Amino acid sequence: MRNKVINEQLMSGLRKGIVGIGLVLLFGTIGYKYIENWGWLDAFYMTVITVSTVGITEVHPLSDAGRLFTVFLIIGGVGVMAYSLTRLAEFMFQRSITNVLGRRAMEKKLSRMKKHVIICGYGRTGSRVVEELQGANKPFVVIEENEELVKRMEELNIPYLVGDATDEDVLEDAHISDAESLVAALDSDAENLFLTLTATGLCSNVRVIARVHDPDNSRKFRKAGASRVVSPISSGANQIAQLLTRPSVVDLVELVAMDKSIALEVFEYCIEEDSEMLGKTLAEARVRQTLGSLVIAVKHRDGTTAFDPGPQTRLNLGDILVAIRQSAEGEQTL
User: Fold this and answer.
1) 3-class DSSP state for residue 229?
2) DSSP string of 173-221?
3) Domain check: are 88 and 153 in the same one?
4) Is 250 within a domain?
5) Closest CA to 234 of 255, 253, 256, 211
6) What is the pTM of this model?
7) Digits of tens for pLDDT over the chain (334 positions)?
8) 211: which strand partners?
9) Which alpha helices (H) appear in the chain, and where do they start and end?
10) Would you say the C-alpha torsion 233, 239, 241, 243 has a positive or negative sign?
11) Positive or negative torsion for Cα 105, 110, 112, 116
């Protein structure tokens, strides 16, 4: 934000300088035209060589009034030129310093990121994903090459990298080996498919979530290594069907998901090697007391999911608990 204010101030000064130069040239041209009765080109040329102090011989001999006018033009014009060139130098220097420091700060921030999300494409889908991740305080970085979108992200202070998301070097700059997930939200299915192949080739552990325009291409993405494939067309059709058949259920889910005033949090808890719940049943682990939550599903390491698991369900390494709890006071995270 501070850099934005500085740039606006420099731009304001630069605009004033350019306007000043234009007024000086206009004033000098009109002055020579009517004082010396010269042609417009001669008057303009005399004005330029005068305010630029290049020392070229006068176009025509000057009258006393013309010489006096030239003196005032030199005093005023040189001052305006000096001011404008100073503003231009300041603007260029500040932009250069801002770009260098910004890149270094971004590189430093990325080097500290672990288990972050790489969002490829800041279009309609990518920008919405960014909003949700910001609300959940999830670390992320956006890869985008469109200059207008990059400028918008810079104004919003969104971490980004400029480049082609399908380029291996760019993905490595985004630290894909340390990333938890990658969102393929480029403009076409072909680009997203190639991105999925590239990403899974660089890091087999990264979870790729791909957006597809044509639902018929979903199978290709899964073969390419995508963990999840999201089709806006299929999702929209399914939601409409659910609204027609089970409207109350959809209303409840949307209310919990969208209304930030409802203090409920749906979260995941992974059973790792150092977890006290490892090897225990849900009853033995006392999840309700330990996590303060209600387990609604257990996703096992083999990919199967047990919904509404019983108390004798045993928790093994890599299992993921899907639970719901009331958020802490003051939190509105879901």
Assistant:
1) strand
2) HTTGGG-SEEEE--SSHHHHHHHHHHHHHH-TTSEEEEE-SSGGGHHHH
3) no
4) no
5) 211
6) 0.57
7) 444 555 566 667 667 777 877 888 888 889 888 888 888 988 888 888 887 776 667 777 888 888 888 888 888 777 777 777 777 777 677 666 656 556 666 667 777 788 899 999 998 889 999 998 988 888 999 999 998 898 888 888 888 888 899 999 999 988 899 899 999 999 899 999 999 999 999 998 899 999 998 888 889 999 999 999 988 877 766 767 776 677 776 666 666 666 555 556 777 888 888 888 888 888 888 887 888 788 888 888 887 888 888 888 888 888 888 888 776 544 433 3
8) 230
9) 2-35, 40-51, 64-112, 124-135, 147-155, 168-173, 189-202, 218-224, 232-245, 247-258, 282-285, 287-290
10) negative
11) positive
The token pair that represents 240 in the structure block: 């409409």
Alpha-carbon radius of gyration of the chain: 32
CB 25 within 8 A of CB 45: no
Q: In what order do the strands lie in the sheet with 294-299?
A: 264-270, 320-326, 294-299, 305-307
Strand partners, 322: 268, 297
Q: CB-based contacts of 191: which residues, under 8 Å, 6+ apart?
A: 165, 166
What is the length of the chain? 334
Given 79, 109, 139, which residue is the final one in a domain?
A: 109
Residues 132 and 218 in one domain: yes
Structure tokens at 12: 């304001």
Looking at the structure, tell me whether residues 185 and 291 fall in a common domain: no
Cβ atoms of 115 and 138 within 8 Å: the answer is no
Residue 95 CB partners (closer than 8 Å, separation 6+): 7
Q: Give the domain range for residue 75.
A: 2-109
* 83 and 56 within one domain: yes
